[in-house]
Amino acid sequence: MDITLIFTLHQDTLPSPEEHLCHLWKIAKLLEPFGLPIEGWYPPAATPKKSRENPAFDRTGPTLMALQILRTEDEKMATTNYRRTGVWTGKEKGRGGVYTLSFSSDEHNPICVFNLQFTELEALHDARTMVRFVLDLLDIWPAATKIEVGPLIYYLKQQVFPNRPGAGWMLYLDRAITPKELPEAAELVPVIERGKQKGTIIVSVMDEVFSADNPEHVKIANAIEVRLADQDLLPR
Fold first, then answer.
1. Does the pLDDT value for residue 221 go beyond 80?
2. CA dist 114 to 101, 144, 146, Å?
3. What is the mean pLDDT of the chain?
4. How confident is the model over 90-94, as a mean pLDDT?
5. Which of 125, 176, 194, 206 lies at a CB distance of 3.0 to 4.6 Å from 186, suitable for a disulfide?
């Protein structure tokens, strides 16, 4: 399963390496209840073996080694307005995951991206648990404009519009959407901030995990995208 979140960095400089890693640590805390311990995430390295020598996090936050690795990478970078880093569970097969976070302070392309890929996390195959996870992501990045949740293959080969968001299993958009506007959705979850709806989580399939191998699931997700696009509710 793949989760991609898009937001904009409204500042002229990148967050510090410490701040960058603290965002990653917050994600590790969210994933811990699903059987992925905080100490079981590892930073980038030349080889998987070297990576597994240095945990990225402990109970208090990012480790000193992870911070030093990111600072060293900063020194090698030719640009000061973009940084991308991530962590993984050190497992190349079975239950595990990897996630990355990029920040951009480029005034011409200020798009920032969080991406999480995981396998065999059965708890997150429950739609309501996944909705709660998406809401938790919005607590970390309340200015997110889009969150896609679904199999990667869907976004690569099955979504309707290559230059617009794909519905997949779930799609968050930073606008209010009503059942009248989108009757194809299995559920529309309003996202409220300060008493007002700031966005909507669109769920295509509620009673089971979305599968790109299920033609009915793909048909529903495609229909959601077409309906949204027809009403100019699906951004480019």
1. yes
2. 4, 10, 11
3. 95
4. 84
5. 206
